[in-house]
Amino acid sequence: MIRVKNLSFGYGGGEIIKDVSLDIMPRELCALIGPSGCGKTTFIKILSKIIKNFSGEICYASERGADREFSIGYVPQNYGLLPWKSVEENICLPLRLRGEKGDIGPGAIGPVAESLEIDGLLKKYPRELSGGQKQRAALARAILSARDLLLLDEPFSALDMLTAQKAQELFLRVWSEHQVSALFITHNVYEAVNLAKRILVMNRNGNIFEYTDMNEKDKLLNLFYNL
């Protein structure tokens, strides 16, 4: 699990995130919503250990045991695929950087690639892919590298409605198979309600609070548009 205690962060003399405390439980799928510019991307960059100069405390506890490094997968808004590497090489890159031994190739990534319907694209390069295919390649890489926590920054926002719906279905299928704790950012309240088990709401003051009533979508919409 991840336990955040009194987390604050700012620069240029102002605070972006203010005194946030929350838990993300094992095998929990959470959404983080809020208005543009409120600090959502900054928050998950802190969770992913990209940003480190924050105040407060983050405790990472792996179910695999205290002797194992906490493993995080991160999908940025631009997907982060290296253009000079094939889809297969991009997906396998975190495993190679981590120094894992054994089969690192089609045999290791095959089930996830098949579930995300990109198993026929492994030899292609990012420039040859559609937006939805790039998104699924980045998702495959993150899922394979994330044993404990998966962080996604607006993973479906750049896709058209039909492609996004298909990508969401594939994401839920793969997530249900791996059951890794996950937090995704979205501006789409309906997407948050339909995908997540719990919704975290960030306001313009940098505070995060929890919304648990998943059955009252209209109430959540009003809450979101009045942040």
Structure description:
The protein is α/β, with parallel strands linked by helices and 227 residues long. Helices cover 34% and strands 24% of the residues. Strands 5-6-7-3-8-9 form a 6-stranded mixed beta sheet, with helices on both faces. Strands 2-1-4 form a 3-stranded antiparallel beta sheet, with helices on one face. A hairpin with a 2-residue loop joins strand 1 (2-11) and strand 2. Helix 2 (87-97) packs parallel to helix 4 and helix 4 (131-145) runs parallel beside helix 5. The radius of gyration is 18 Å and the shape is globular. The two termini are 28 Å apart. 37% of the residues are buried.
Descriptive key words:
34% helix; 7 helices; globular; 3-stranded antiparallel sheet; 227 residues; alpha/beta; 24% strand; 6-stranded mixed sheet
